[in-house]
Amino acid sequence: MESSAYPMLFSPIKVGTTEVKNRVFMPPVSTNLADHGYVTDDLVDHYRARAKGGVGLIITEVVTVEPTYTYLLLRRYVYPRLGKARRGRPRVWLQDHATALPPRLHGL
Asked: Residue 14: exposed, middle, or buried by beta-carbon count in 10 A (0-12, 13-18, 19+)?
């Protein structure tokens, strides 16, 4: 696919040492599709659909690295309607969270 307005859009680009197939990048988007910190099939399917759609680089959503991450607490207590956000974010502060994440996302 070629675009006259953006002729380089679908050509490869090197980001650091990684070769990306095109310049279509997906910014981080909070999906709240994790289940109490664990990556779910729905979350994997979400990223897989974007990869199949042609996105060259996907930047994943926030991954909580400690249980007291203040952004999530702020959302829970200041904006109570958004209280489920804490349960829906991927986490890596427990060993079983961290070891479960890479195999689920491998191959996207």
From this structure: exposed
